[in-house]
Structure prediction request, 281 residues.
Amino acid sequence: MCDTNQLSKISTQVRRDILRMVTLAKSGHPGGSMSSTDILTALFFKVMKHSPENWTRDGKGHDMFFLSAGHMTPVLYSVMARSGYFPVSELASFRKCGTRLQGHPSIRKGVPGIYEAAGSLGQGLSVALGAALAKKANNDPNFVYVLLGDGESQEGQVWEAAMFGAQHKVDNVIAMTDWNGQQIDGTVDSVMSLGDLQGKWEKFGWHCIVADGHDFGCIEDAFKSAQCESGKGKPVMILFKTEMGHGVDFMAGTCEWHGKAPSAELCEKGLAQLEETLGDF
Prediction:
């Protein structure tokens, strides 16, 4: 079980991994990966009950994680590799033809830890709710976690799933939104404002928690509060306030790096701001 200092070191290394992966591949989505790094670091290394050694795709007997915002694979692959699902060295194969680590999660080549192919935005919450209902049917007490983007939350299927989750009292699912306010074409507010996002989830019948997505104490408290809602008849949404590109000054707070790889020179500039803590791949 990692403490806050250890989580901070892991998240710094994960951000290094993200930068190096997209730079080597010359493509990818660093912005949202960087903003959600602290969330997924806490989830995989402190919160979620999972066992890379005993992983099976049916998810029986352990917590499950779904990445609805499927373009954010750099952060997912890094936390998975760093927690033991596959060798860290494999991160160097990101987005190369024929490899397991494609730009969006794929089940075709059987990557351990990946439960669904993702990429078309808006679908992950529906899948997670189905998995959570399956756990209920099997008397499996574990949780299902799913991460959405705020730009993704403009998709209608998200809100159909929200209605379904509340209607069927799927109270063993913990959804999260990487609420960084940016998407590929600009700010979320300028493209299609989500308005009162907290109010929307509450009106749709969910228990909603708002937390700082870059403070490990706040992140852990949010997950603990969410877990305490299990069995009370409401699914949970945690809105994590984050910053796009967090951790690297020229990426922070802008949509410019939503889906663009830095040059080798800019990568080195970013890496200089992130201390190597666990060893690069």
User: Anything to note?
Assistant: The chain has one domain: 4-271. The longest helix spans residues 4-25.
